[in-house]
Amino acid sequence: MNPRPDPPRKERAAVEFPEATWTSFDRYARYGGIVRAVRANLGPGKRTALDVGDNSGWLLTFDDELLVYSVDVAANREALDGTVAVLGDGARLPVRNGAVDVALSSDALEHVPPDHRDQFVRELARVSDVVVIAAPFDTPGVAGAEEFVRRYVEAVTTDPQDQLDEHAENGLPSLDGTVDVLRDVGFEVAVTGNGNLQDWLLGMVLKHQLTASPMLDRLNAGIDVLYNSSLAARNDVAPYYRHVIVGCRDRVPVLFEPTSDANDEVAADAIRLALVGASLDLALRHTLWQGTQALHTHEQEIADHLMARFSGVEAALAALSGTAGATDVRLRNIEAKLASINELLRHPVRTVGRKVRGDRPQQ
Questions:
Q1: What sign does the CA torsion over 133, 134, 138, 143 have?
Q2: pLDDT at 91 over 60
Q3: Does residue 208 or residue 101 have the better pLDDT?
Q4: pLDDT value of residue 197
Q5: What are the strands, taking DSSP E only, across 53-174?
Q6: Pseudo-torsion of CA 83, 84, 90, 93, nearest 10°?
Q7: Average of per-residue pLDDT across 221-229
Q8: What is the per-residue pLDDT across 146-200, written as a single tens digit (0 to 9) for each?
Q9: Which of 194, 241, 252, 186 is nearest to 35 (CA)?
Q10: Most CB within 10 Å of its CB: which of 22, 71, 277, 289?
Q11: Which residues neighbour 3 within 8 Å (Cβ) at sequence distance 6 or greater?
Q12: What is the 8-class DSSP label of residue 238?
């Protein structure tokens, strides 16, 4: 397991969940909404919670007074410290009836095969009298936003976005259908929105834009801290990316009060523009830097290729020079022999006589 990260900032006065400001803005929105729903209906103090579909222990980061059991079909070696992991299928929970104070699910229902979703919801209702389900549902705008982000991620990173691919393959769950399942098993139900859809779309595009540039990826956490510390109130502003369903057996659920200043559009627009401008500027600078580096690399490759070719030519010239030198020696030998033959042909009697007498020719 991994230790829970320390908050990146010490400031706490204006932050609802200060220990969680380091986490992604999307996770902050959904677990923040879940915790508010849990406390609105159970009150303060130690409570047992079954988090179905999570194997990392995120909930404890938002409320350390909850005793959380994290249920998932797979174990996670990188779970956060304090995680009590339980292997199990959400459609067949290994928990007795009414065993926990609250059964909840955070962005898991959309990953459940459609034929098993109703049973998944019934199992949550079986093990607790209070159920909280947060998920993106088939509500206006959500599928379109997800499809754009899904394609954008693959375009800029060349890797698929597995979670959104599964959303597209399964189809998003029905909000009304999920509510009906809870009502059928004796629950009163209330629904509230969670996570501003426009901010979700912008945030996901910006974060993956930065992820695509290794030099800029470090800014990802900065976007999360900024949003969680300054714009988290907008998680209660429509249009919504997800909804939170709260169900209570035999009593009307209590919905939490929206965070104050949730409609501060001037500040939100200013920060969004700053995020877009800064990210695009850095991305452009990095793209230009990459292009310059690629050009330098290409130039070096050409220079190395020419030098390799020149080295071959230089060796060939050296070999040719050696051959020319040997040829020159041979030519001088031939010329000397020709000179001797020419002397013999010009004065054959005198030359032969000298050779007989041993005379040397006059210089």
A1: negative
A2: yes
A3: 101
A4: 95
A5: 66-72, 84-87, 102-106, 130-135
A6: -170
A7: 92
A8: 999 999 999 888 899 999 999 999 999 999 999 999 999 999 999 999 999 999 9
A9: 194
A10: 71
A11: 80, 81
A12: S
161 DSSP 8-state letter: -
Helix, strand or coil, per DSSP, at residue 56: coil
Level-2 CATH architecture, domain 18-263: 3-Layer(aba) Sandwich (3.40)
Residue 249: its H or E element: strand 240-249
Identify the pLDDT of residue 264.
Answer: 53
pLDDT at 350 over 60: no
- Is residue 43 within 8 A of residue 115, CB to CB? The reply is no
Which residue type, as a one-letter code, is found at position 70?
A: S
Percent of the chain at pLDDT > 90 equals 61
Q: How many CB atoms lie within 10 A of CB 248?
A: 22
Question: Closest by alpha carbon to 100, among 119, 117, 125?
Answer: 125
Can you tell me the distance from the alpha carbon of 349 to that of 360, in angstroms, rounded to the nearest whole number? Answer: 14
Q: DSSP characters for 299-352?
A: HHHHHHHHHHHHHHHHHHHHHHHHHHHHHHHHHHHHHHHHHHHHHHHHSHHHHH
